[in-house]
Amino acid sequence: MFTKKWAAATAAVVGALLLSSCGTSSSGGSGSTNGGASGGGAITLGFAQVGAESGWRTANTKSIQESAKTAGIDLKFSDAQQKQENQIKAIRSYIQQKVKVIAFSPVVESGWETVLKEAKTANIPVILTDRAIDSPDKTLYKSFLGSDFVKEGQKAGQWLTKEFASATGDVNIVELQGTTGSAPANDRKKGFGDVIAADPKFKVVASQTGDFTRAKGKEVMEAFLKSQSKIDVLYAHNDDMALGAIEAIEGAGKVPGKDIKIVSIDAVHDGMQALADGKINYIVECNPLLGPQLMDLVKKVAAGQEVPARIETEETEFDQAKAKTALPQRQY
Ligand code: AHR
Predict the structure, then answer these.
(1) Residues 156 and 237 placed together within one structural domain of the fold
(2) pTM of the predicted model over 0.85
(3) Is residue 48 part of a domain?
(4) Does 271 contact ligand 1 (Cβ within 6 A)?
(5) What is the atom index within ligand 1 of the atom nearest the CA of 182?
(6) Among residues 286, 305, 324, which one ends one of the domains?
């Protein structure tokens, strides 16, 4: 009897700790906005965010939080700190809380079937935003809203092949990959690789993850600079890693944008500033402002309406002149 009581009490405490640990973060942590789950019939959305690893992510979080407020949706938000297990815990807590809709941006592509089946069994529709999963079971989610990451990688490759069209010798490229196993890292690598494969002079001489962060981008670029005798190009899967790498390049006494050409993805404010300053040479845009479209989808899904299986955001590319023009109006 005593043991059973203690077991129950311990389970309750552990459960509470797990739920609260899902959301401790610099981007606002977990919690509910717009008045709580029972707030006057508002749709409750549980959103499991990846983390706060980049300028892109911060803009994405802000867009989701602001749009939920505008749409009158009760948002329960958690930050997984780039850990899949935290996202799974957050999704399970949303299932327990019986939210109306769950949305999340999967840290990595694989390993979601079990928890998404639990959501399906509980009749809670799921929307994937920003990043996709690799499950063949398309009934586990209602819709995907985000970018075509393969296309983004292709655009980076196309810029590179034009930029070095007249080069006669080898063009040595180092690559800073995003988070290992994530859709943007896998797809941006593939898209870029497919395009540059058309000409054997393009050689990826080193490729490693920088986990989409500035600090890791700097650290890995420092190692590349030590291990590689000739680097012509840096391809960074996001601006933050490129910005970290710029510090490493300058620290090594080289000029970013000249001695080493840089192409990256995102087009966040700091990246665009570096492009305007000539330290980055080209940026492929990835749009983080998914909030308004997501809230629209949430309302439709909550009402039982059919929604498109895939919705892609519109994106562009920037060279230095275009970045200078766009910078004053850039929202993020
Ligand atoms: O999933 C989108 C990617 O995740 C962004 O390009 C990157 O900056 C972020 O961390």
Answers:
(1) yes
(2) yes
(3) yes
(4) no
(5) 1
(6) 286
100 neighbors 171 (Cβ within 8 angstroms): no
DSSP 313: P
Q: Is 34 left (phi over 0), alpha (psi -120 to 50) or beta?
A: left
Q: What is the CATH number of the domain that holds 281?
A: 3.40.50.2300
Ligand 1 centroid from CA 153, angstroms: 13
Report the distance separating Cα 235 and Cα 204, nearest Å: 9
User: 82, 212, 270, 285: which to mutate for ligand 1, most atoms within 8 A of CB?
Assistant: 212
287 in contact with ligand 1, CB cutoff 6 A? no
Atom of ligand 1 nearest to the CA of 237: 6
Classify residue 326: in a domain, yes or no.
Answer: no
Are 176 and 263 members of one domain? Answer: yes
Q: Give dist(CA 61, CA 238) in Å, integer.
A: 17
- CA 239 – CA 258 distance, rounded (Å): 17
- Has residue 126 got a pLDDT over 70? yes
Q: How far is residue 26's CA from residue 245's CA, in Å, rounded to a whole number?
A: 23
Instruction: Please state at what angle helix 113-121 crosses helix 84-96, rounded to 10 degrees.
Output: 10
Q: Which of 331, 232, 319 is nearest to 275 (CA)?
A: 319
Give yes or no for residue 130 CB within 6 A of ligand 1: yes
In tens, the pLDDT along 250-265 reads 999 999 999 999 999 9
Please indicate, yes or no, if residue 119 is contained in any of the structural domains: yes
Ligand 1 atom with least separation from CA of 286: 6
Q: What is the pLDDT of residues 1-50, one digit of tens each?
A: 334 444 444 443 333 333 333 333 333 345 655 543 334 579 999 999 99
Cα(213) to ligand 1 centroid in Å equals 9
In whole angstroms, how far apart are CA 318 and each of 30, 150, 192, 268, 278?
35, 18, 17, 11, 12
Count of the separate structural domains present in the chain: 2
Separation between Cα atoms, residue 278 and residue 84, nearest integer Å: 37
Does one domain contain both 159 and 204?
yes
Query: Containing domain of residue 124, as a range?
Result: 28-147+288-314
Residues 261 and 132 in one domain: no
